[in-house]
Design goal:
- There is one protein chain.
- By secondary structure, the protein is of the alpha/beta class.
- It is built from 8 helices and 11 strands.
- The strands form 3 sheets. The protein has a 7-stranded mixed beta sheet, with helices on both faces.
- A hairpin with a 6-residue loop joins β10 and β11.
- α5 packs across α6.
- The relative contact order is 0.13.
Length: 342
Amino acid sequence: MKWAKASRCIFLTIACLSACVTVAAQTPDACRPVSPDVARLVEIRSGYHYVDGGLAEFDPCHASVKLSMPSFWADKLADKPPLMIIAHGGGGPGPAELEMVRRLNARGVATLLFDAYEMNGFRYKGTMLFVLGVTNESRQRMIFKATLGAYEWARKLQTVDTTRMYINGLSNGGSVAINMAAVVDPHHVRMVFAEGATPTGIGMPDEIKVPLRLVYGRLDNYGGKTADDWMYSRTDPCHFNRPSPLAAPGTATRCNPLTNRGEMTIPIQAWGEGLASKGSPIVFWFYENAAHGLLAGPLKRDMRVYGTGSTAMTRYGWTGGSSDDANRFTKDLIEEIKTSYR
């Protein structure tokens, strides 16, 4: 009996150390609770909305904020681990973001994940509202403000290496990550990884301050009108854009409902290649057997319906990819992080 109790104690200790998640303690003056008059949804057509009003500040005391540290058995890169700030996709933190946390923590990288929608007072879990019923620019404006606040808060952390910070984003979070590359301090952020970024929303900046990796599955047609309407080469009407007042000047300042409304957005591949040709540190990573969300699980060839009623639109929505590509993506991330220690 004693041996059984001792074994159970050892097992629980190992389990705790293997999946340790630490949320930094906060002083009361660090909290930024949402105000009652913050963001609200306005229906622009049946079942489809944009977000109006002021947006919430990043609140490190919010229940969704998870600062996850590498476990005792994780790879050790340095005395203090580097930090990856994760900007979630258009549906909020999901399986791909949680898998990113798991993989990075196991390899010695701390992660900071949060829910920008919940910080703005929205209770949407269990519904598809934010996936299918809210404009890209609305989602990106919320995620960008929260991610910018998370970065500013994280720079003061004592538990991570604040000179080796990174930013990752998927989908709408990928578009946010691109814009973060234009506003962060290179002394703190070494590189930004933008996966599956969309060309519409808050646009792309005219200049970046840190190296940027633009990550895509070759089969990423998420939201496409046809099976080969690839996210990286897609273009949409300018009136889908709305610039964030917090972002650096960029494509959305010249392509929005008030300026060049009838024109089309520049594809992200063309934007990235254009800046790279002028010397900007931009590199594309393509993965052949993957679609939208390399860590979202096996490849699924689904369709999506946006809006309801007579105005509803059916679009392609392939997600996930091969395990080989998911593993290669993880390896590529870690290799880039390790280069800062050489």
